[in-house]
Design brief:
Elements: E1 5-9, E2 12-17, H1 19-27, E3 36-39, E4 46-47, H2 61-64, H3 72-83, H4 90-107, H5 114-141
Antiparallel strand pairs: 1-2, 1-3, 3-4
Helix pairs in contact: 3-4, 3-5, 4-5
Amino acid sequence: MNEAWFYRLGESQLGPVSTEELRRLIGTRQIGPAIAVWREGLPGWMPASQVPQLLPSEGGLKFIVPTGRTSGASMAAGYLGLFGFFFPPLGLAALILGLIGVRDLRRNREKNGWGRAVTGIVLGGLLTALTIYFAVLILLKR
């Protein structure tokens, strides 16, 4: 079955492309799984990750791990938030990069990385608050 698919990149609508071509674009990370797709018979535009026939044949792992265009700030925020447990002052950098990542993701809807941006904001905020709390405690004991 070779349906005609359309997909959106930013404000542009592209297509028609075959199912195989769309799967290839997703599989080679030229477009991300969050990209809006449509074909005749669908109720409306939907993320490619919600269309079972567009999932990679090796399973859904590529949809758990960010594929396609990813926000670098979001990726850095997530990792800094995690590494902040070993060195808490990294929390402030995670918080800032998480906020930059959210701005980037809102401006570029085809990018992925929301989970890591939120991780950076949450862990970064928590670690920053804990760093400030302990710094104040140390300063007050002097």
